[in-house]
Amino acid sequence: MQELFKKIINTDLKPLFAKHGYSKKNLNFYKSDGNLIYNFNIQKAKYNTSSQVRFYVNCGVHSTELAELQGVGLNGDI
User: Fold this and answer.
1) Which of 8, 14, 29, 53 has a CB 3.0–4.6 Å from the CB of 40, allowing a cystine?
2) Stretch (H or E) spanning 64
3) What pLDDT score does 41 carry?
């Protein structure tokens, strides 16, 4: 199961995200576009089997401009 999951990430998802300008770190794909940072996280599902791999795609958008207005840094410090 672990090998199939790695294959999906490296063969399918990594090239797809790279084509759209995303960088990869661990199971996170991210890119900056001006004041916005886009992030996609791949999370393995709890009950995978040897024949079936499930995962979740979590996504987020961070606005540096909005964070500055609220006084919050990238690491969450106020």
Assistant:
1) 29
2) helix 64-70
3) 97
Residue 78, pLDDT above cutoff 70? no
| Whether 42 contacts 13, CB under 8 Å | yes
Separation between Cα atoms, residue 9 and residue 47, nearest integer Å: 18
Greater model confidence, 39 or 6: 39
Q: Are strands 28-33 and 23-25 parallel, antiparallel or unpaired?
A: antiparallel
State pTM to two decimals.
0.76
**Contact present, 62 and 77 (Cβ < 8 Å):** no
Rounded to 5 degrees, what angle do the CA atoms 71, 31, 70 make?
A: 10
